Give the backbone structure.
Amino acid sequence: MSGHGYTLFIGDKNLSSWSLRPWIAMKHCGIPFAEERIRLRQPESREAILRHSPSGKVPALKANGLVVFDSLAILEYLAERHPELHLWPREVEARARARSISAEMHSGFVTLRNDMSMDLLARLPAPPLSEELASDIGRVVAIWRETRAKYGAGGPFLFGAFTSADAMYAPVATRFRTYGVDLAAFGDDGTAASYAETLLALPEMAEWTEGAEAEIRSRKAG
């Protein structure tokens, strides 16, 4: 347990996009926590997860007897527990926008998730570009461009400073890298590509990637 009593249960770092979201937010904001990994796609995975998460899915955050499950719920909980970190933007309009695009990421982009699943360490050919996939990628590009243009003047993130919205979109940047997506083909003027590189260059992203590599090495050695 950390000083705050936080333990974050996550899946494989190479595969679990949902686990990355609260993990990178907590790391970037300096919130101490203990990390427990449950290997996914194994016969015993669901049973192991159910011991910690009633949804049977990761991530789950344990905090002094409370279990918060679901990435966005964890981010909301952390924002309430640590208001000084401003995990949501301070200004009302920007905060509403941040919550809107985070919720859209949470509930939408089904084709993008299915056709370009997270495989952090791989470099794979892009899947066939269906109308639905093109629409999802184009929408992400539009969100990044529009948000950076209107709210991002104060720094390199969507709202200038890092917020939960950046945590929600961090795994998407890894997907675009994995599948070699040229964002210019989807209406980007360079803004979205630059933002993706900002996310990928974070020290916390490097730490997550090192963890994924260590997991793969351990698996091969075993």
About this structure: The mean pLDDT is 95. The beta strands are 6-10, 34-37, 60-63, 66-69.
